[in-house]
Amino acid sequence: MAAGLEGAAVVATDAVISIGVGLVKFATFGLAGVVNAKVIAIALLIGGVALPGAFLAKALIERLPLHVHTAILDAVVIVGGAAMVVNALHVHTAILDAVVIVGGAAMVVNAFVR
Q1: CA–CA separation, 100 vs 84, rounded Å?
Q2: Are 76 and 89 in contact (CB under 8 A)?
Q3: CA atoms of 22 and 32, how far apart (whole Å)
Q4: Following DSSP, what letter does each residue of 18-76 receive, concatenated?
Q5: Suppose 107 and one of 12, 72, 75, 81 were both cysteines; which one would form an S-S bond, judging by CB atoms 3.0 to 4.6 Å apart?
Q6: If pLDDT is split at 50, 70 and 90, which confidence band does 107 have?
Q7: CB-side neighbour CA atoms (13 Å) of 57
């Protein structure tokens, strides 16, 4: 969006980033020794359930006008950022509050700046 991506390119970019983040998490937790057969089974189950959603999203994106898709993405980012700020106000750890409030505010501001 802010990088000039539109429609399916936004979804594809998000998918690639999610795979990269997932691999880094898996490696980190694997090295920490907390990945066991149960964790892997749950991850595969979640992935298997989420896979049809990717095809549904593709079908929706192909049918949605670009401005509607962009508005939906903006709304999701704004709501997510606002939820982070509200959640941080309920947590009483000062450093965590500051980090989450700044991150949430940055997400909301970024949604409006293109």
Answers
A1: 6
A2: no
A3: 15
A4: HHHHHHHHHHHHHHHT---HHHHHHHHHHHHHHHHHHHHHHHHHHHS-HHHHHHHHHHH
A5: 81
A6: low
A7: 16
Cβ-in-10-Å burial (0-12, 13-18, 19+) of 110 comes to middle
Tokens representing 89?
């106000």
- How much is the average pLDDT of 35-43? 88
Cβ contacts of residue 107 below 8 Å, gap of 6+? 77, 78, 80, 81, 84
Cα separation values, 68 from 28, 52, 55, 61, 72, Å: 38, 22, 19, 10, 6
The model scores a pTM over 0.70: no
User: From CA 73, how far away is CA 18, in angstroms rounded?
Assistant: 16
Q: Diameter of the chain by CA atoms?
A: 46
How many Cβ atoms are within 10 Å of 109's Cβ, its own excluded?
11
- DSSP tag of 55: H
